[in-house]
Write a structure and sequence with these properties.
CATH superfamily of the largest domain: NADP-dependent oxidoreductase domain
Structural class: mainly alpha
Distance between the termini: 26 Å
Radius of gyration: 19 Å
Shape: globular
Number of domains: 2
Strand order of the largest sheet: 1-2-3
Strand content: 5-15%
Helix content: 40-55%
Largest sheet: 3 strands, parallel
CATH topology of the largest domain: TIM Barrel
CATH class of the largest domain: Alpha Beta
Bound molecules: iron/sulfur cluster
Number of helices: 10
Number of strands: 3
Order of helices and strands: HEHEHHEHHHHHH
C-alpha cells in the first residue's frame, strides 16, 4: 500500500512510520518493509513509537539487566530511541515525554549522538527474544487456520494484537485497541466474539492451540462497550 501511495504521489516529502526494535520484523506493523519502501522512493522517514508506547522502557528485570550491565549510565529509553535514530534514512525520531527528566535524558544522548554499535545490536536482539518469550498465545502465524474459519476471523492477527497488548503496560492509550477497532469496522472479517466454537481452526493448528478459548480472552480484552463495535 505504501509503495502504491508513494508511486502515485511523488510530491510526498516524507513518511512517518512506527519503528522500534520490537516491531522491526513484526508482520502486522511491517516496520522494516515500510522503511525499505520509503527509502526506495527516497523519502526521509520520521519515526513514531520508538519506545512502543512505553513498552520498551518497562522491561522485565532480566532484559533490563542486560542493558544496564553493558552501560549503566544509559537509560533504557535511550537504547530504543538510538536504535530508531541509527537508521540511515531517518531524519527525526518523535518520542512522547511526560517529565523534564525524560526531556533532559533524550536531548542529552541525541545531542551527543552515537549510532547503535554491533555489540549493542546483539543485546537488543537478546532483549527482543526475552520480550517474545513473554508472549501469551503461542501462535506462530503460519496462517494454516485462516481459510477454514466460517466467520472469516483473522485468527493470527488478533492473537498478535492480543500478545502485544498483554505485555504492554497500560498507559491510557492502546495502539492495539485502536488497531482492533479499525479491524472490526471491516465487514468482510469476523471479530473474536463472532467465533461459534466450531473447532475447524483447531484441527488445522500445528500448535494445537485452544483457539476458541483464546478468542474469548481477545474479545474480553478489546471488545469493551466503549469501543462501540459493529
Ligand atoms: S472455532 Fe471459531 S475461530 Fe475457529 S474456525 Fe470456528 S468460528 Fe472460526
Ligand atoms: S494455525 Fe495455529 S499457529 Fe497457525 S496461525 Fe492459526 S492459530 Fe496461529
Amino acid at each position: 500500500m505504501l509503495d502504491e501511495v508513494l508511486t502515485q504521489h511523488p510530491e510526498i516529502e516524507f513518511v512517518q512510520l512506527q519503528i522500534n526494535y520490537f516491531d522491526w520484523e513484526n508482520d502486522s506493523v511491517q516496520a522494516k518493509q515500510c522503511y525499505e519502501v520509503a527509502t526506495k522512493h527516497k523519502k526521509p522517514v520520521i519515526v513514531m513509537e520508538p519506545v512502543k508506547g512505553g513498552t520498551l522502557v518497562n522491561l522485565s528485570p532480566e532484559a533490563d539487566k542486560l542493558m544496564k550491565d553493558y552501560n549503566p549510565d544509559a537509560s533504557i529509553a535511550s537504547w530504543a530511541i538510538r536504535y530508531a535514530a541509527s537508521l540511515d534514512n531517518v531524519m527525526m525520531v518523535l518520542s512522547g515525554m511526560t517529565s523534564l527528566e525524560q526531556v533532559e535524558d533524550n536531548t542529552t544522548f541525541m545531542d551527543d549522538f552515537r549510532p547503535i554499535g554491533a555489540e549493542e545490536e546483539k543485546i537488543i536482539e537478546e532483549v527482543t527474544g526475552i520480550l517474545e518469550k513473554q508472549i501469551t498465545v503461542d501462535c506462530t502465524k503460519c496462517n494454516y487456520c485462516l481459510e477454514y474459519c466460517p466467520k472469516h476471523i483473522n485468527i493470527p492477527k488478533l492473537f498478535d494484537l492480543y500478545n502485544i497488548e498483554m505485555f504492554t503496560k497500560p498507559t491510557g492509550f492502546s495502539a492495539q485497541g485502536q488497531y482492533y477497532r479499525t479491524y472490526a469496522k471491516n465487514e468482510d472479517v469476523g471479530t473474536a466474539s463472532d467465533c461459534i466454537e466450531c473447532g475447524a481452526c483447531v484441527q488445522k493448528c500445528p500448535q494445537h492451540l485452544a483457539i476458541p478459548e483464546y478468542l474469548k480472552d481477545v474479545a474480553k480484552k478489546f471488545e469493551i462497550p466503549m469501543y462501540g463495535f459493529r
